[in-house]
Amino acid sequence: MDSVCDINNQTLRSKAGGEEYSPLPLIVILGPTASGKTKLAVRLARALNGEIISADSRQVFKGMDIGTGKDLDQYKEVPYHLIDIVSPGETYNLHQFSQDFYSSFTQIADNGAQPILCGGTGLYIEHILNPRPYSAIPTSTDFKQNLERKSREELLVELKQVALPIDFCVDTSTKKRLARAIEIGLFLKNNPDFTIKRPKQIPFIVLGINPELSVRRERIANRLEDRLNQGLIDEMNSLLAQGVSHKVLQGYGLEYKFCSKYILGELNFVELRTQLTVAIQQFAKRQMTFFRGMERKGISINWLPRGEISQQEIAALKIINSYGT
């Protein structure tokens, strides 16, 4: 039997039924870590004949399963994309994600299914909702690292000496982003014939999950305990045995950074658990700050009611059904 959902007089059916597919806007599910994004995405995918595209900068890496919380068992029969696509240590950046996203999006549409973008990497999500064509400009890790050794004040002075396109929005919040702006300006100066390809704007609906602070903290603490019991340290040792260095693993932050320090003897187990819990809490706070910043830039986020996921699913479907009315 077809999977059918009437949304604003548009009929969404699986291709197996031979019916015409009326594509809907991209559904985006975002929120801080441990907010329940994947569970909601899977429920919506089942209701809407959907396929999920991951927007997580670490879940792309093979073998980094427990530390990144891939939770692949939750997907079951729901198709997913952009998980386990590169090896640890390989370069994967915003430009590569953009290319992979549009490839997956096209594939899902060709399947007659509903694309659902789900994750907590705000930079990736924002780029899809508000495309940044300049991300296609190649980057040099060595060049950026040399710039980042300078003070923020020095970088601001250097930035003033670089001519940037009038539509380029400079983010001066971190040295990393200042360095990238300088790199882009210098590249365009040295490559005047470089053509900027502007991504096609995709219509979208953004759904946000933000549990109560006390709930989020409890979930983070419990989840970390579960991951440690499930073999997070063993996963780290396996990656090291495959030739992935401590330096590379620490670069992925959070679980991999602190577990690396534990294996190296720089932290004992109690320090690992305590410091990592605090770091994840701080990370969740930064995620919410980024999402609020997206709202200030004009991206509308429909924050779902706090509570049971079944109620969030009902609220989400109502929002989706009302799209365009």
From TrEMBL:
Binding site for substrate: 33-38
Keywords: ATP-binding, Magnesium, Nucleotide-binding, Transferase, tRNA processing
One example of a Gene Ontology biological process annotation: tRNA modification
Pfam families: IPPT
Catalytic activity: adenosine(37) in tRNA + dimethylallyl diphosphate = N(6)-dimethylallyladenosine(37) in tRNA + diphosphate
Cofactors named for this entry: Mg(2+)
Enzyme class: transferase
Record keyword S-adenosyl-L-methionine present: no
Enzyme Commission number, as recorded: 2.5.1.75
Record field: transmembrane: none
Region (Interaction with substrate tRNA): 56-59
Marked site: Interaction with substrate tRNA: 121
Cross-referenced InterPro entries: Dimethylallyltransferase (IPR039657), IPT (IPR018022), P-loop_NTPase (IPR027417)
Matches recorded under SUPFAM superfamilies: P-loop containing nucleoside triphosphate hydrolases (SSF52540)
Entry binding sites for ATP: 31-38
A GO term for molecular function: tRNA dimethylallyltransferase activity
Alphabetical list of PANTHER family matching this protein: TRNA DIMETHYLALLYLTRANSFERASE
Assembly information from the UniProt record: Monomer.
Record function comment: Catalyzes the transfer of a dimethylallyl group onto the adenine at position 37 in tRNAs that read codons beginning with uridine, leading to the formation of N6-(dimethylallyl)adenosine (i(6)A).
Family: Belongs to the IPP transferase family.
Stated name of the protein: tRNA dimethylallyltransferase
